[in-house]
Amino acid sequence: MNKYIYVTSLIASLILTGCGKQSFNTNYKGNTEPLLSNAYIRLPLGTVKPAGWLKSQLEDQAEGLTGNLDDFWPDIVNSSWHGGTGETWERGPYYLDGLVPVAYLLNDEHLINKVKTWIEPILASSNDTGWYGPAKNKDRWPLAVANKVLMQYYEASGDKRALNVLTKYFRYLHDSKPDWPDKDWRGVRAMENAVTGYWLYRQTGEQWILETISSIEKNSFDWTSYYEKFPWDSTAVADKKVPYNWGPEGLTAHVVNNAMAIKYPGLWYQQSKDERFKKAVFSGIEKYDLNHGQPGGRFSGDEHLSGKSPAQGSELCSVVEYMFSLEELYEIFGTNTLADRLELLAYNSLPGTTTPDMWAHQYDQQANQVLVSAAKRDWSSNGDYSNIYGLMPDFACCLANMHQGWPKFIESMWMATNDNGLALAAYGPSEVKARVGNGREVTISEETDYPFNGSVKLTINTEKAVRFPIDIRIPAWADSINIRFKGRNIKIKNISTYRIKERWRNGDQIFVDLPMKLRVEKAYNNSIAILRGPLYFSLRIDKEYKSVKINYDNFSYKGSIDWEIDPKSSWNYGLLISKNNIMRGIQVTETTPGKYPFSDTGDMIWSADSGKYLVSTREAPVIIKARGMKIPEWRMKDNSADVPPVSPVKPEGDAEIITLVPYGCARLRITEFPVMDVVLMEDLLRHGK
User: Fold this and answer.
1) Are strands 48-50 and 430-436 parallel, antiparallel or unpaired?
2) Domain extent listing, the chain
């Protein structure tokens, strides 16, 4: 465990224990004995709402695939989960796992009514044994997802029927023989049930629920030992020993299984109280980064784990599932590096793999993505269409599952503390309306364009003055931050969480200034990635969208389409950057995010008013001008940009001004840049060569 994680954990421990005295939140249900008290308490769905550009992003999602999918995609239109005769497995629950929070976070009556057309048949399907869902389904896996749907629906609606269905189902699991084989999804993903199980225990206090979770943990795949030994490292990738198959071994190398499973030891830690399980979580994250890490906080997996090359893809399902795992883990541990990574995923990898209008998505995204097409690529085990932006460019799981990313992130931006306060876990425009102190309801509005800039204003609204603490998360990348409140101006350095415990009055404000300094991250072949705050930056490549027809029907419903994207400018640039002064030759320009915050000039945007696609002329919210130089020998390989040449690269030709935009705004991009040999270049210039 590195020093930063240790300090963060120590601070979270002190907040929890008060140097020996345990605190319990009297406003929200946290863990009680025999469970360990968590660092924070996740607030019920609807407590945190999006604002500003983040609300626009969620509205874009509602106007795109999320709000329209069950109007035209047969797998959802005819789903047995809401009374149809079609698909009976995971796609209905996956879709609802995002639709439910989107509907209630936007308070969208149309979407809420859609939710109810699904929920009523699900509630009615519960039988005397406790089993529920389509009669033809005999597999426990889709019910693990449906459990999370009912959990969220209950929080938003208060409908006690959902709580009763969940209680009956967990009683069924308790009284039934364990059925969690390693060869099946329900076995390797069995502990997904613990997410709802621990929530259900907090609602009811029934001890037998913990017995159920214990049985699941003991009779399913041992992910804790997996993280301790981690068989699929860089050596396994180089030696081509990673099992690219669908057998029991291959399921352990499956990228989505890994993204889900990283939270499983952490979930069990609450009950086991054994530090081994906590260590397994952080060891697992470290091993993902070391062996398969890519920009945007993710790890590779163009179906299976596939190493660190920026040409390898990463599946959209793995992004949203990794986000959810981190949200759960942050609630348990309060370790700020988890929230740092969550922001990286939310603000880079998630928007980078969808179109700005949320009408199309990729199955596999690349860090260095210079062509979007159905051409053959060197994926571990995915199909050739995985790279296009479309309706269902490979397996349709991502089309069903992608919807949870943004709304669950928003839910987790604020959490409750154990001593009746609030914690700012992830930055972004939002509003939290919650009970604090002795039960008084307050609203905190967060006004910011973060992550596009670092200025944050919190305004507290309360009918009467109330004393409660606010925990301010300090990102690891911020060497120092300024916090101003009640006439005080405080510079914060070398701590991970700053706690303000005050008697707050209506209209009180807190200003947080986060330093948006450029920094570099070492990448493949000594290349580098450029970051500013939580945003990665990529080369802007001129592009041409081309509507294509592939081997399935995209139904041409409203904005549903499949896009290939061709480059119309050079991409093979190395960066001219000074190690001693990274800002030398760099110019940064900020603008206010628009309706489509993760768009850039040249993107195609669906216009519902005109019923056609229009070309965006609006630039990305942050533009960086830098110096670059073409590298003629850096070319395409297998229809992707070849791996970057080893840096430093000998300079040839002339320096040029190049434009970088946020990763999430770039459908075509270079994100891992070779670095030119600046010392050699300056020497050549001095000698007139």
Assistant:
1) antiparallel
2) 64-221, 416-513, 518-686
